[in-house]
Amino acid sequence: MTNAFEVHNLCKNYNLFSLKDVSFAVPEGSICGFIGPNGAGKTTVIKSILGLIFPDSGDIIIKQELKQTENKTRIGVILDNHMYIEEWKCSDVGDAIALCNELFDKENFNSLLKKFHIDERKKVKELSRGMKVKLQLAAALSGKAEILILDEPTSGLDPSARDDVCDILREFIIDGGKGVLFSTHITSDLEKCADYIIFINRGEILFNGPSDELRQKYIRITGSKSDLSLEDKDKLIGYREHQFGFEGLLERQMAMKLSENLNREAATLEEIIIFFDRDFGEEKNETN
Known about the structure:
Blueprint: E1 3-13, E2 18-27, E3 30-35, H1 42-49, E4 57-62, E5 75-79, H2 90-100, H3 106-115, H4 129-142, E6 147-151, H5 159-172, E7 179-183, H6 187-193, E8 196-201, E9 204-210, H7 211-217, E10 218-223, H8 230-235, E11 237-242, E12 245-251, H9 252-255, E13 263-266, H10 269-287
Parallel strand pairs: 3-7, 3-8, 5-6, 6-7
Antiparallel strand pairs: 1-2, 1-4, 8-9, 10-12, 10-13, 11-12
């Protein structure tokens, strides 16, 4: 399997946070969801890939067969907040990008504006949030990007607009030679379109593999506190008590050893993040 890009043993130390030997790959022809709670390290990793910050150590290998000078122009970046001038018309966006990217295809850009139902005469500030994301996608795809990196682009979009973005990403990778890293807190989008999941927490990669495997790895445990031993309680991730009993997360193979009276349910991606984040919060409180 050929990778669109690879991250090897990435380390970055700050006063209160560190990336610790972060390694993963985004295979060609795939959409990789990049998940984790706030402060887990996602933005630090993305900025390192884009060359916006310099890691203390580690390597980032982007499409080895591309010329080094082409690497950055072959990466399309779609952000929560775009970087276009609000007073520009949508057609001006294409003109501006064409000046600094010789690979940019203005004709394709105009074609994509029509496909995405974006009026080229409208100013950027007049577009809805969803249309601004599509404008960024049109720009990235017209620059002959082979890699797309998305950092929370669907935040605040309605379900229809988010579904449109997922469709565009699926179409982008259909020829098998491209890859997508999609960082988002809206995990339902990833459950629709992500082939792989990279789960980061506390600056470390906890999981890197097929999305179905992550959902199968953990089980949500609920039930009466009287049916849970103290030993088993300590094993649970993100344990929380409530008036009806308790809830927590546990690896599937360990869950099978618990009392038969306890309930076992498949965990969603969102629940996995929440339980790990809760566990991290309790650990921080204990050390303060």
